[in-house]
Amino acid sequence: MAKEQNITIKEYINKFLEGHVISVEFMRKRFSQILQVGATDTAVLMQDKGKNVIASVTIQKSGDLYCSACKKDFCEHIFASLFSPSWITILQNMAKEE
Ligand SMILES: [Zn+2]
User: Fold this and answer.
1) Calpha distance 13→91 (Å, rounded)
2) For the chain, domain boundaries
3) How far apart are CA 67 and CA 80, in angstroms?
4) CA 55 to ligand 1 center in whole angstroms
5) Which residues surround ligand 1, an ion (CB under 5 A)?
């Protein structure tokens, strides 16, 4: 990928890390009330301090995400959960079941 962009590996990694830091900072500011408090085999649990609820975000069979707090397939809890590394484990669990 570094070759495609005609930059060195070091520059590529620096750019990547810079992007990551910016997105983490953005998330902290934008979703300061929403943070992950846990995960199960199938769900990422997001606490919303503003609304005082725990939202359980799951993947449905259709592939859509679902938030138990909002009963919607897209909301701020789902968006915030997308940055969670717990999805990797959940997707791996789902792949095992199929
Ligand atoms: Zn929600």
Assistant:
1) 26
2) 1-30, 33-97
3) 11
4) 6
5) 55, 67, 69-70, 75, 77
